[in-house]
Every structure is written in C-alpha cells, then in structure tokens.
Amino acid sequence: MQVLEAAASRFGGFDVEEFHAATSIAAVRSAGALAELARPVVEEIQRTGIPPALALSALAREELNQAEQRKRGAYHTDFRLALHLAEGVADCLRPGAQVVDPACGAGMLLAAVSIVACGRDRVLSNEWLRHSVHAADLSPAALRGTLLALASLTSDVSSLKAMRGRWRVGDSLLAPDATWHAVAPDGFDLVVANPPWEKVKLTRHEFSRARGTERHYGASYDPYSLTGYEAAREDRAAWAARLVDRYPTVAKGEPDLYVAFTELLLRLTRPGGAGALLVPAGLIRSQGTEALRRQLVAASRSLSLTVIDNRARHFPIDTRFKFLSVQYRRNQAGGRGLASIELRHARGAQDRVEVSRPVRLQFRDLELLRPDLTVPEVRSPEEWRLFRRIQAGAADPSDPRSPWHLEFCREVDMTRDKPHFRREPDKMSLPLVEGRMVQAHRLGAKTYVSGEGRRARWEHLAPGESRIAPQFWMPSRRLSPDAGSRASRTRAGFCDIAGQTNERTMMAAMIPSGVACGNKVPTVLFPNDPSEERLLLWLALVNSLPFDWLMRRVVTTTVNYFVLLSVRLPGVAPDSLPGRRLIEIARRLGELDRVGTASGDVLWRAAELRAEADVLVAGAYGCGDKDVRLILEDFPLLDRSQPPIRGEAASTVTRDLFLTMWSRRRGRPGSDEAARVDEARRAGAVAYLPSEFGDEGDTVEVASA
C-alpha cells in the first residue's frame, strides 16, 4: 500500500512523507526507497492508458478469497463501468456538489466521478476533494485504497486530510440517519454505488466453502465442514431482520444487499439530485424487487436503465450474467411523475462501454402490459412495438378465471429430499426427472452415465430415441400428497434452467404418470380445463419460436412461475381449427420422439411439424412478415452444428424452413427460402435439431462444464 501511495504522490505531485504524517501512517521504508519501488508501477500505469486514479484504485483492492468475496458481495468495479457511470451524470458534477459512495470499496467510482468533474484542473480538483467527496465502507483498508486513488489527482495534502475527515468506517445500511445528516443536511446532490450483490441468507454450501472445504454444488456434505453452521445462520438471520425492519423493500423474497442499498441511496439523494449505480438485472426482473421498482419509479422524474452482459468480464463471474447501470433524477416536491423509462443495451470494449441508442418505454404502456413493472428487454423501438402489440391482445395466464390459468408444482426438492433418493430402481420408487432430461416436446433427451452433482456425466439421446434413464429414483411414500397425486396423472413439465442467449429458452414436454419431477422441472396443470388437449395445446404454444422470443425479453437464468405467468398466450381455443392442428402436432411430436430411431426421415418430419406449429402460433399472435423476421433474428445459435449451404459460413436451415412454411401459409409457395431448404437437405442439414447433434455436437455432457 505504501508503494501505491508513493506512486500516487508521483502522479499528484505531493510529498509522500507529508501524506503519511497527515494520515498517521508509519513508513516502512524511506521516502526515497518507496519512490524507487513506485517508479516501475508508475511506468506500467502510464503504458496502460488507464487514468492513473482508476489504475491505482484497481491495484489497491483488498485481496479476498472466494468465500469472503461472496460473503461481502464484493465484486470490484471495472474502470470501464466506472467511467460509463460517471459520464452519464456529468451534468450533476458542478463545483460544490455533494457526492457520496456509501459502499466505496477502493474508490473506483469516486475516482471516475472526480476525473469527469475536474479533468486536468488541479485547482478545481483541490476544491472538489476538499468540499465535495464523501465515502463510507466496512473496511478501513478499502478506504485507504480510496484515499490513495484520489490523492493522485491533487498536490494538496490538506485537501486530502479534510476530505478523509468526513469519511466513515462502518455498516452504511445500519448507520443512523443523523450520521448522514451531519455531512449533508439536505441530502446529497449525487449518490454513486456498486453495492454488494449477495443474498443475506447463509447457505450450507457457502458456510462449508468459507471453512476451506472444496465442494461443488450437488455433492454430499462432509459433516465436519458444517460444525457451527446453525449458530452462524442464526446470527445472519438476526442481521437480516434488522435490515428488513429498516428497509421494507427487502422484505419480499430472500433479502439481498443490493436491494437495501438501493433504498438507502434513494433516501440519501436530495430532491432534484441524482443517482448512478450498478445492480443485478434482477432489479427489473425479479418478483421480489417489485416494491423497490415501485419506490424507484415513484421517487424519480427521469429513469434510465442500461442492460450490460458480462461477456467483457467486467466482473469475475459467469459471462452470461447480466447487470444494470441505473441512473435516476429525484423528483422535486410536487413534481410531475415519471412519463417514460429509457432502456439501453451496452457491451464492454477494450477501454470503454459502448451503449446503444435508447428505447423509450412509455410508463402507461409498461404498467398496462407489466403490472408488476418488470421491464421487457427490448433492443429497438421495433421490438418494443412488437412486444407491446402482441401482448396487448393476448390471453393472461395469471387471470384465475382464464382457461390458461396455470397450477404449478415443484414435486421433489433435489436438495432437501436428496437423503431419500435411491440409486437403483425398485417397485416402490419412481424415476426422478431432472431438468437436463427435458427438451422441447421431448422427455428423456439425456440419460445418466455416472458421477454426481455438477460432475455428473450425461449422454445425449437423439430425437426419436428418448427414454427415461434417470440418476435417481424417489420412493413414492416420500412424496408430498400433492406431488404423489401429480405423479399418478399426465401433466406438462418444463426445464426452468434457461437464459436469453441460449439456443432456446423455453423447453417443455408431456410428463406421463409413474414418474416424479425434480424442482428444476416444475409441472403444470390447468384447473379450469384439465383435459389432455389443453396440455398439448400449451406445449405447442410455449415451445414455439414466437413464445420463446417473448420469454427472452423477460427471463434471466430461470423460467420461474412469476416469469411464465407474465407472458401472455395467443387466444387459441382447443376446439378452433388452429387449436386442433396444434394439438395434433404436439401429440405427433411426442410419438415421433419414441419411435426408437433417429433416422433422417423422422428428424425431418419432426422439423416440419415444429415449423408448422411456429407458423400457426405466429399467426395467432397477429404477426406479419416483418415481425417473424425480427423474431428469427433473436436465435443466432440455431443450426450452429448443421452443415451450411455451399459458399456460406453458417447454416440457416431452421430459419429457412420457418419462412418457407410462413410463405406457403400466405399463398406464396415459391419463396427463395424453399430452394434454400432443399439445398440444405442435400447438404445433410436438419432443421430444429439441437446443437449437440451434428458436426460440432458432443455425445456426453459433463454437468460442471
């Protein structure tokens, strides 16, 4: 840290001995020795092109092990994100403005804000740091990192000392209101934060890993690794109760730290002030964050949301994870309500965040289509118009009077019920269906090979060869009464593990009697119409590309009840002409999947049936030519393992088959796509075939991969 402070002194121009004296730091080396050690650090920072204050902040981060990082939710801010946030609130950074980060870490956001506020003006920097910058964090080491990062912007140690005098070490969430009022009686002009993203609830897995146990999800627990777990869980529960009491938005669902921090930020922002923060995409997706969404909308006169994925590795987590940059302006007393929400998408480049043009969602339309105020992830005005139009005229499955009203059940909890599982079948046990065994219109798409948890190995079964070969069997007597009743009847089920960027998002199949389903395969019945025809029609609708497109606007990584109930279905009755045909298609697809062979004729017959179903569903939703082409753009991973047409880089056989069927339905049989389908078939391509089957496909899946 002293080497980094010496590096900061080189950039700022202050005397490092004076700095250490002002901050009561006992030097471990002479000033000359520290300067010599800092010289290569300074040179390397200059070579990166990253602003020195941001580079120093990154280098000053605390080293945390994985368990401690998860406990704190401490995922440090990438410098590109910090500049993106700061540039978005540049108009708020006038001289004298009061700025705070109540979970500052090593100060990346405060450094970025200060760079945007002051540029290269050292006089302005001195005044800005002396009077405007406030910080708080649980960790004294983190605040030391913040100080040295900001110190690189000034030569005035007295300004740094005055600034540091306003900072506090402690839990910002539980700090008394008087603490904040003492430094900003009317509230802050700007609040910035990348608050912790972590559930407050303590899990056995997290506790075990914190004790140094190497363990992957799904594996059995070593009893010794859980010694003290109950006491630690009670302590965490008591802390969560204090948070819920102080921040009512945390009360719904499992308490999450970012929810509490967002409510705190709103409280700290003065009327007319602004906020900029980084939070998980659950803010606009989750059922448990509805109260926070409503509070954010009610408090804001303008609101901008930018959806960012992690493919640029902004954070050391899954690259598929999505998060938000949120910018708001607080309402003045008696001000007008929020008229619209600006939605953008962004991706990380080498040295910046590249942001798309905004889509403006009128709030009255959003409230009509999404009463819970979840925000559909539309990327263009055309997508918003399509989403708005087809959902406005569709049937609402959340209406308890509707024939589409769903009744869900998670039949077997794969964690809680695991002690009851059997490895071998017996007369009193039922095969246990897991999520990876379900694909669109297919049950038994994979068969268990060996291993357990995330290291289990599964073999893919080609369409036409499906069979139920599970990892576990569940004793019938261990099922709950509801699950036992379900297991004795036919119902539908779906894989709830999903993603917007997967090859397909929604995958559902008919579940026969005599099997039980794990919690990753929720089962579905329709209490207002218990017929098999209703189930088959539902399967045809939800496995279609148009429905999948709608789901991809609102889902993150799980197709939960809340999400599924929010996506409306086309008004197709089972006894209508399209309804009867869709039922027959779903029934026939189920039969074709059990013929025992994966011949080309079987695969192409299934593909043609699925294309026909997709066309019928698109027509029922009221789609036109431009609409279906827009929908098809959202599935870039289709056919990636199929051979392309000669002279082309990638196969588009599924798209071409869909458009061929679409043209025929509209009396245009001689489409260009029809010729492309014929050529693709001659090349050996098969439409609608999952990517694991083909030139690039694997036959065995390792679950941890």
CATH topology (level 3) name of the domain at 2-198 and 256-369: Rossmann fold
Strand content: 5-15%
How many β-strand runs?
22
Quickly name the level 1 CATH class of the domain at 2-198 and 256-369.
Answer: Alpha Beta
Terminal Cα span:
38 Å
CATH superfamily of the domain at 2-198 and 256-369: Vaccinia Virus protein VP39
Question: Characteristics of this structure?
Answer:
705 residues; alpha/beta; Rossmann fold; Adenine-n6-DNA-methyltransferase TaqI, Chain A, domain 2; 26 helices; 15% strand; elongated
Task: Summarize it.
By secondary structure, the protein is α/β, with parallel strands linked by helices. The protein is 39% helix and 15% strand.
Structural notes for this entry:
A hairpin with a 2-residue loop joins strand 13 (438-439) and strand 14. Among the domains are: 2-198 and 256-369, Vaccinia Virus protein VP39 (Rossmann fold, 3-Layer(aba) Sandwich), CATH 3.40.50; 407-585, Adenine-n6-DNA-methyltransferase TaqI, Chain A, domain 2, CATH 3.90.220. Helix content is 39%, strand content 15%. The strands form 5 sheets. Strands 1, 2, 3, 4, 5, 6, 7, 8, 9 and 10 form a 10-stranded mixed β-sheet that branches. With 705 residues, it is an alpha/beta fold. The longest helix has 21 residues, at 600-620.
How does the SSE layout of this entry go?
Layout: H1 2-12, H2 16-22, H3 31-48, H4 52-59, H5 66-72, H6 79-88, E1 99-101, H7 108-118, H8 122-131, E2 133-137, H9 140-151, H10 157-164, E3 168-169, H11 177-183, E4 188-193, H12 204-210, H13 229-246, H14 257-268, E5 269-280, H15 290-299, E6 300-309, E7 322-330, E8 340-348, E9 353-355, E10 359-362, H16 363-369, H17 381-392, E11 407-409, E12 429-433, E13 438-439, E14 442-443, E15 446-450, E16 457-460, E17 473-475, H18 481-487, E18 491-494, E19 508-511, E20 516-517, E21 523-525, H19 532-542, H20 545-554, H21 561-566, H22 577-592, H23 600-620, H24 625-632, H25 653-665, H26 672-682, E22 700-702
Parallel strand pairs: 1-2, 1-4, 2-3, 4-5, 6-8, 12-20
Antiparallel strand pairs: 5-7, 6-7, 8-9, 8-10, 11-21, 12-17, 13-14, 15-16, 16-22, 18-19, 18-21
Helix pairs in contact: 1-3, 1-4, 1-9, 4-7, 4-9, 5-12, 6-7, 8-10, 14-15, 19-22, 22-23, 23-25, 25-26
